[in-house]
Specification:
Organism: Ananas comosus (Pineapple)
Keywords: Coiled coil, Exocytosis, Transport
Strand content: under 5%
Number of domains: 4
Biased composition (Gly residues): 55-67
Protein name: Exocyst complex component 5
CATH class of the largest domain: Mainly Alpha
Shape: flat
Number of helices: 28
Region (Disordered): 48-74
Radius of gyration: 62 Å
Order of helices and strands: HHHHHHHHHHHHHHHHHHHHHHHHHHHH
């Protein structure tokens, strides 16, 4: 098919590009899309216009159009091609590629030229750097030679200066030596002759220089005498042998000069001329480092020489009442006195700082003198150590007063030491010195503390005994039997008293903490003090429980004395019954009395354990073994109390069971379980004996339920339940039962079972349930006994005993039936 005229014209125009490609086109923000668009945009608009002129119908329209081929041409008989400029664009792209290749070659050539130029410049730069390095090395060598020269010149100059300084020093030393030898010869001329000395030693305006020269001469002379081993005897006969005369004369002169300076210092001190005092102190510092001046100044303070000051201290602290003024007033007095001492020392410190060249040394001497003289004089009047053999009377405060005053004095003196430390005391160990003031009292502190606690306990027990005696005397007209009805005449345990014991101990522990700085010492003292509390509480509670047991014993003796027994006389029986009622009331009262004692014991032990946990434990834990040992001691003390309580609780059970047995024996009638008219309607009420027993138990055990707790309560109620079960079994062995009586027995058992259910003891509940089942042996027909045994074999042993109590045991030949049952089993 021949090409269309439009295709031919496009081929002829494809040889030229729309614009020339240059290197600048690829610099900066190059965009390929923009380059491509600039190449083809001039060709594409022609195609778009031809596409817009196409007839309606487009592809496959009614104008006879045909299908388009994939290369853009139409089939035979079709219209113009879809993309007529394709050949032109392909040619354009090929030409563009050639242009790009040419540009790349140009770039490669330019890069090769640039590499050559860079290599040449790099070689030149390396050569220049090498030449510069050589020059710098030479410059460094020059600087090193110059520095060495400068150092050499400096060392030479320093040597010259040292020589000059040494020569000047030697010249000066030689000059001073000549002067000293001249002065030494004057002192060595004749013994005791100080009249022909140079004016230097008599001129008051040159005292400082004279003191310095005298000290130098004295040091030299003593060294010479010591070096030659010649004794320092003074006398004209041996003066030529050395400098002994000079030593003696210099000593005499120094003493005279020191006394003269001290006199001048005192005069200046009276006039408060601090400058003169400072001048004298500075000169006196050359004599024994000024020790004499320091001690002289401190000793001359009014608070050490004025007796009125010391008397005032005692009056302020003790007042007119002496040691009976009370620890509060004594503490207030000590605070006032110590505050005055601190203010005095503070004022003296200001003077000392202005006068003495070594003020810290003077302050150390001053503070030491304050503690050893003024404070000690107060403590000697305040702390009078009592004898452990003859204790001071408790009416006058006893050992406790001494210990309280000791604690107050120790604490206030420690505070004074801290205040004096803040004012200044040099290198004085003020803490150690303060401790030494109380050393004699601290050595026996633990023994005094234990003796004090024992004294307080004995006094308290005596007070309680006196109160009990007074109460007993007020009821002295009562007979012994009536006294047993009133256990309150016995001294009762008081939680308040135990709390007082703990308060004493707590106060003692606070003193232990105050006096004991080392953990081991503190733990030992705390343990000994706490052991006193354990002994006191254990003894007090045990004795209290024993007194409560005495009440139980008295009630038991009273009960046994008026037991009815086999009394035939009716009037005597009535009197005995009345007395038995009174004995029962006494037993019940004693029971309540003991239960209250047990309750108070439990509260007291709880207070003791809480005190140990809160206060004692933390003080013992730092020392290995101390805490465990105290726990063991506390356990032993509590065990002794528990032992006494256990014995009493068993007696309480005996008391309760004795009354239960009395009620059963007096209230239980034979007709209760074997009615004369057995054909009558059965009585479903509990027997009168059962009602009385349950009422008694409910009333008397009410206090036990509130007094006992935990395992103690469980153990007590379980034992009581077992004893009640056993007692009822023995009691019922005395009766004969009819079928209706068996029903009433079962009603009694139900009543007892409901009551003991309040014990919360499963084993007791089970026993009473089995009793209810066993009561069926009186109810069932003789021929049904075998089935009863088969249903509950656990009751067989007791049931075999109770079957014999059936009123038809012989008439119904139950014995033979039982034997056959036993042989079959």
């Amino acid at each position: 098919m021949p090409a269309s005229p439009k295709r031919s014209s496009a081929s002829s125009a494809s040889a030229a590009l729309p614009f020339a490609l240059e290197l600048d086109d690829f610099k900066g923000d190059f965009s390929f899309d923009a380059l491509f668009g600039s190449l083809v945009n001039e060709r594409l608009p022609e195609f778009q216009e031809e596409d817009g002129d196409a007839p309606d119908g487009g592809f496959g329209g009614g104008g006879g159009g045909g299908d388009a081929l994939p290369n853009g041409n139409l089939r035979a008989g079709a219209g113009p091609p879809m993309f007529p400029a394709v050949d032109e664009l392909l040619t354009l792209f090929k030409e563009s590629c050639k242009e790009l290749v040419d540009l790349r070659q140009q770039i490669d050539v330019r890069l090769q030229n640039l590499k050559k130029e860079v290599a040449v410049q790099d070689a030149k730069h390396r050569k220049t750097l090498a030449e510069l390095e050589k020059g710098v090395d030479g410059l460094f060598d020059s600087f090193a030679r110059l520095d060495s020269r400068i150092s050499s010149v400096g060392q030479t100059a320093a040597k010259i200066g040292d020589h000059l300084q040494s020569a000047d020093s030697q010249r000066e030393t030689a000059s001073q030596t000549i002067e000293l030898i001249k002065y030494l010869m004057e002192f060595n001329s004749s013994p005791g002759d100080l009249m022909e000395l140079s004016p230097l030693f008599s001129d008051d305006s040159r005292v400082a220089e004279a003191a310095s020269v005298a000290q130098k001469l004295r040091s030299f002379a003593e060294e010479d005498v010591g070096r030659h081993g010649v004794p320092t005897a003074v006398g004209a006969a041996n003066a030529s042998r050395g400098l002994e005369v000079a030593v003696a004369n210099l000593q005499e002169y120094c003493n005279e000069l020191e006394n003269r300076l001290l006199a001048r210092f005192d005069a200046a001190s009276q006039r408060r001329e601090l400058s003169t005092m400072a001048e004298c102190a500075k000169i006196l510092a050359q004599f024994n480092r000024g020790t004499s001046a320091m001690q002289h100044y401190v000793a001359s303070r009014p608070m050490f020489i004025d007796v009125e000051v010391m008397n005032t201290d005692i009056q302020v602290v003790l007042g007119d009442q002496g040691l009976q003024a009370g620890t509060t007033n004594i503490a207030r007095g000590l605070s006032t006195s110590y505050k005055e001492i601190t203010e005095t020392v503070r004022k003296e410190a200001a003077t000392i700082m202005a006068v003495f060249p070594s003020p810290n040394d003077v302050m150390a001497i001053l503070v030491q003198r304050v503690l050893e003289q003024r404070v000690t004089s107060i403590l000697d009047k305040l702390l009078i150590k009592p004898s452990l053999v003859n204790l001071p009377p408790i009416e006058e405060g006893g050992l406790l007063l001494y210990l309280r005053i000791f604690a107050v004095a120790y604490g206030k003196t420690q505070e004074l030491a801290k205040e004096l430390r803040s004012v200044g005391c040099g290198e004085l160990d003020i803490e150690g010195l303060t401790e030494s003031l109380f050393l004699a009292h601290k050595d026996e502190y633990a023994e005094h503390e234990q003796a004090s606690l024992k004294q307080l306990y004995d006094a308290k027990m005596e007070e309680l005994r006196a109160e009990a005696q007074q109460q007993s005397e007020s009821t002295g007209t009562l007979s012994r039997s009536k006294a047993a009805l009133n256990p309150s005449t016995h001294q009762q345990i008081s939680v308040t008293v135990v709390t007082e014991f703990v308060r004493w101990n707590e106060e003692a522990i606070s003193r232990c903490t105050l006096f004991s700085s080392q953990p081991a010492t503190l733990a030992a003292n705390v343990r000994s003090v706490f052991t006193c509390l354990l002994d006191q509480v254990s003894q007090y509670l045990t004795e209290g429980l024993e007194r409560a047991r005495e009440s139980l014993n008295e009630a038991a003796a009273y009960r046994d004395r008026f037991a009815i027994g086999n009394i035939v006389n009716r009037r005597a029986a009535q009197a005995a019954a009345t007395a038995a009622e009174a004995a029962a009331a006494a037993g019940e009262t004693s029971f309540r009395f003991f239960m209250i004692a047990v309750q108070r014991c439990a509260s007291s032990v709880a207070i003791l354990q809480q005190y140990f946990s809160n206060t004692i434990s933390r003080l013992l834990l730092p020392v290995e073994g101390a805490h465990a040992a105290s726990c063991e001691e506390m356990g032993t003390a509590v065990s002794s109390v528990e032992g006494a309580a256990h014995k009493g609780l068993l007696q309480c059970i005996d008391t309760v069971m004795a009354e239960v047995e009395r009620l059963l024996s007096t209230e239980q009638k034979a007709t209760d379980y074997r009615s004369p008219d057995d054909g009558a309607a059965p009585d479903h009420r509990p027997t009168n004996a059962c009602i009385r027993v349950v009422a008694y138990l409910s009333r008397v055990l009410e206090v036990a339920f509130s007094a006992l707790e935990g395992l103690n309560k469980q153990s007590f109620l379980t034992e009581l339940g077992n004893r009640l079960h056993k007692g009822l079994l023995n009691h019922w062995q005395k009766f004969t039962f009819s079928p209706s009586g068996g029903l009433r027995l079962k009603r009694d058992i139900t009543e007892y079972g409901e009551f003991v259910r309040s014990f919360n003891a499963p084993s007791i509940d089970e026993k009473f349930e089995l009793l209810g089942i066993m009561a069926n042996v009186f109810i069932v027909a003789p021929e049904s006994l075998a089935s009863l045994f088969e249903g509950t074999p656990s009751i067989r042993k007791d049931a075999l005993r109770f079957i014999q109590l059936r009123d038809d045991y012989k008439t119904a030949k139950i014995a033979s039936r039982i034997n056959s049952i036993m042989s079959e089993s």
